[in-house]
Amino acid sequence: MTSEGAEAVDSDGVEPGTVRPGGRTARVREAVLRAAGDALVEHGFDGLDLADVARRAEVGKTTVYRRWSSPAGLVADLLTDMAEQSLPRTDTGSLAEDLRANARLVVRTLTDPRQGPLFMAVIAAAACDPRTAEALHRFYAVRIGEWSGCVEAAVGRGELPAGTDPGEVIAAVSAPLYYRLLASGAPLDEEVADRAADAAAAAARAGVFVR
After folding, report:
1. Together in a domain, 197 and 137
2. Where's the DNA-binding part (predicted)?
3. What are the tens digits of pLDDT across the range 23-34?
4. What SS3 class is residue 35?
């Protein structure tokens, strides 16, 4: 994995991968991030090379080095884009159904032929690269924040005890699903998703997640 001596910040003093690149429209960013995702799926983080990404995206190497500076910066922006493209949370008026929708979305993502391997590659990269880990943490903080509203609404309706930590409830839904993906290798399907959601809902009702 190489970065060919690119600078850590761009000409505006902004760390690459933390904001949308300016200038040449979103088409360049879209092409580069698509190419980066393809390269990650094929070669993993250790094989992610900015020159190769530029070639795949049919973009000048200088543009890629200037805007993203390093493979870690590219992955950070890829995660930002993935968060931006994620579907909005479901609002059914029922905690159980909202959490099931969340769990099923996670399963669909992790079993998608492209998204699944991409997440695996990003998670593996985060285990050995601090900047990628920070980007991954931001990604999940955004997603958990978006879905926390269904827990807050459930507290407001009296479905859950006051003081329930919304983020902990949402994390409890997806945790067993990622365990299956990364550790056990057990199948992921809607039945598994519903079971994870129901378990998190039952624990929340019992006050397990009260701060």
Report:
1. yes
2. 49-68
3. 555 889 999 999
4. helix
